[in-house]
## 1
Amino acid sequence: MPVEIRDFEQPLDYEACAQLQVDVWGFSAADAVPPLHLIAMHHYGGILVGAFERERMVGFVCGFSGWDRGRVFHHSHMLGVLPEHRGSGLGEKLKWAQRERVIEQGIELVNWTFDPLQAVNANLNVNRLAAIVGKYRVNIYGESKSPLHGSLPTDRFEAEWLVSSERVTKALRGELPGWPSWESLPRANATETATSGFRVSAKADLDIDEDALLAEIPESINKIMAEDMDLALDWRLKTRELFGAYFERGYAVKGFHRSEVGAFYRLEREETPSD
C-alpha cells in the first residue's frame, strides 16, 4: 500500500502520534508526548510530519526550534516507524521531508540524539543522512523503564545535520563515500568473540594519533541486552570513555562501516568537529 508523507493536519493526527510512541517504543501513556503538547509544538514553529497508509499513521518525525549561544537550530526530538515498516527506508524519507521544512524556515542546523550502540540508527544517521557527531551526552534522559533503553544508562550521541552543506546534499543525491581500505585504519578498541558468540571489548586505546581511526560497537546491542545485561553495560561504559576522550581531542564521527567482522564508527580528526 502506498505511503503518503505529509504534515499533521487534524486532531486525530496528534492522537495517532501519541499512540505510535507507545506502539514503537513501549512507552507508557504517561511517558509519551501527549496530543495537546504536540499541537502546541506544531502551532509555534515545530515541525510534525507523518507517514500515512490511507488514514493510518505508520511513522512520524517531530521537532522544535532551539537556541544556543546565539545560534538557532531545529531539534529533532522523535523519529518513529512501526515495526512492519522498518527497513523500508521510511525513516529516511521522513528525515528528508523534515529537512525541506527546516530549510523553508531559514534554519541551517538540525540536531538530535541517538544511542551510539544502535548500529542500524548509526548507519541511517551517519551514512545515509550524513550527520556528524562530535558530542557525547552521559545518561541524558536519566533512568528509564522503557524496553527501548533496557535499563542501560541513557548515553547518547548528539548528531549535527548541516542541512544545506555539500556533505548533506551529496547524501540526498545518493552520493555516499566509498571509504577505500577502511579496514586498515587503527582500531581504538580491540575485541574478541566470547563463548556466547557476542563480541567483547577490551579497554580502549585512547592515545592513537592518526587522522582517522575505528571504534567498534556490537552488531546488535538489543540481542546482548536480552541475554547478558552485564555485557551490555560493559559496552556502554567502555564506549563512553572511548568517545568522550576522542571527541575531547578534536575527533568526530564521519562514517560508519560494516563487514563480516563487525560494526565500526569512523572517527576523523578536525579542528571543529561539528562543521
## 2
Amino acid sequence: MRKYVPKILLWLFVINLGIAFGAGIYESRVVIPPWENIPPQTWPQAGVLFWVYVTTVPLTLLTLANLLAAWLEQGPRRRWWLGAAAISAVERIATFSYFIPTMVWLQGTEGLSEAEVQAALSQWLLLDYGRHVLTLAAWVAALKALSLPDKHGG
C-alpha cells in the first residue's frame, strides 16, 4: 500500500491543480469584473464558500505533501514533480501573502473611495493573471511527471 501513496498524491495534485486553474480563470473573467461597479461590502461571499474547501486548504496540503513525495522520489519523474510542487508553493505563498489579505481588506473597508476600490481591484485582477500562469505551469509539470514512470517503473 505504501508504494501507492506517492502516485495517489500526484494524481490528487494534478486533479486539484486543474480545478484551481479552471476555477481561477472563471473567477477572474466572469465573477470578479462586475464587482468594480458595486461597493465591496455587497460583494458575494462565494469565493470563501468555494475556495476554502476546493483549493485554499486542499491545494496547500497537497502542495506540501507533493513537495515531500517528490523530494523522496528517485525515478525519472522527480524533476518534473519537484518543479510542479515548487511552482505551486510559490503560488500558494503569493495567495496567502497578497491575494487573500487584499481581498479581505477590500471587503472590509468602508472608508475607501470608489476610485480606490476600483484601482485596488484592477491591480488584484492584473496580478491574478500571474497566479494563473503559475498554476498552469505547475499543472503542466505535474501532468508531465504523471506521464513518466516512477522508480518502480509504473
## 3
Amino acid sequence: MKPVNEQTILITGSTDGIGKLAALRLARNGARVLVHGRNKEKVVRVAREIKESISSGEASAAKTKIEGLTADFSSLAEVRRLADEVVEKYPRLDVLINNAGVGYTDPRYSKDGHELRFAVNYLAPFLLTQLLLPVLKNTTPTRIVNVSSAGQHPINFDDIMLEKNFDSTTAYSQSKLALIMFTFELAEKLQAENITVNCLHPGTYLDTKMVRDAGISPMGKPEKGAEAEVFLAVSESLEGVTGKYFNVMAEARANAQAYDKQARERLWELSMDLAGLK
C-alpha cells in the first residue's frame, strides 16, 4: 500500500469512542481522514478538534485534509446519499473502516422498520461497502475493515428481525456475526481485485459511550481498540491478508456459522434484497 500520508481513509462512526481515536491516530500520521457521524454539528466539531491536535511537524499538512461527512445509518436512504457524496468528492479511497454501531439500549427499530442493531451494525455497512466498491477498485491495493465483536450469536433466518422473541443482547450479537459473515464472503468475491477485507473484535467492554450507556463497568481503554483498527487498516504486516477475524490484533476463530458457506450466501441474498440492490 501507499504510505499512510498519501492515503484517503473513511471511518464511519468516528465522532466518538474508538473511531474518533483511530481518526486522530491516522490524521497525525498524515492521512486524509473522512470523519463520519450522524450529527452535523458534532462532525464539524470533531473534525476541528482533530485538525487542532495536529500541531507541528510533517503531519501538519494533514490539517487541510480532515473532512466531515454526515449520515444517519438507521436510514438506508441516508447511507445511499453518503455513498453518492463520497463517490462524487473522492475518486480514490484507500481504506474503508466500518466502525459505526449501536448497542443494547438504543431503540428497537430503524427508520426503515428493520431491527435497529441489524440495520446499523450490519445492513448499513453492507450497503455502503457495496456502493463504494467502484472507488475502492479504482485505488487498489485497498482495505476494508469491519468492526465486529466477540459477542456473536447465530442468525435465525426464520426470524432475523427478532419479531417473535426480541432481546437486545441477542440482536446486537447477531448483527456482529452477520458483519463477520459479510467480511468472509466479500473477501472471497474480491480475491481477484487486490482489495483485502478483514474484521476485528476491538476489545471487551472498552470505556466508550456505548458501554457506559448500557450500564456496564468498562474493562479496558478505548485506545486499545483504536490501535487495533489502525493496525488492520495500514499495517504493512497485513499486506495481502484477507478474509480473517482478529481478536484485537491476533487472528482468531469466529462463531462456527461464519464458516458456513451456505449460510453466508443466504445472508448475502437476503441483504441484497433488504438493501435494494437486486
## 4
Amino acid sequence: MVNILLVSACLLGINCKYNGGNNTNKDIVELRSKFKLVPVCPEQLGGCATPRLAAEIQDGDGRDVLEGTAKVIRKNGIDVSSEFRKGAEEVLKIAELMNIDIAILKARSPSCGSGYIYDGTFSGKLKEGNGVTAEILKRNGIKVISEEEIDKLKCI
C-alpha cells in the first residue's frame, strides 16, 4: 500500500517557483490526511536560486537532457542543464531513501512535467516529453503524475 508521496514543493504552497511564488493546489495539500507528503523542488536541489529566470528545454526533452543531447536554457540564454540534472538526481535519491513509488509533479515544468513540457521557445507552446526529474523518476520505476491527474490516486 502506498502511504508516502513525493510532491513538487510548489504544489504544497512552498515559494520555490521560478518567480518566487508557488502553485498551491488545495486538492494536493488535502492529500496529507491520507498520505505522508515529501516536498521537493528539483531546481533548488540542483542549486538554482529563487527567484530565477524561467527555463525551458531546447532541442529535446528530459531524456535528451539526461543523455547530454539537449539543454535546459534560461530565458536569457544561460545553460542550466547541469543544475537540472543534479536536482533530478537528488530527488531520485530522496525517493529511493523514502521508498517512494509515486510522485505528483508540476505539469509542464522543465523539471517536473510529465507527458508534456513547454517547447523551449518561451511562447507557452507545448511539446510531448517529460521534464528532467520526471524522466529520471520514471526510468527508475517511480510512477509520475501531475496535479491535473490526481484522480488516478483514487485507485490506490
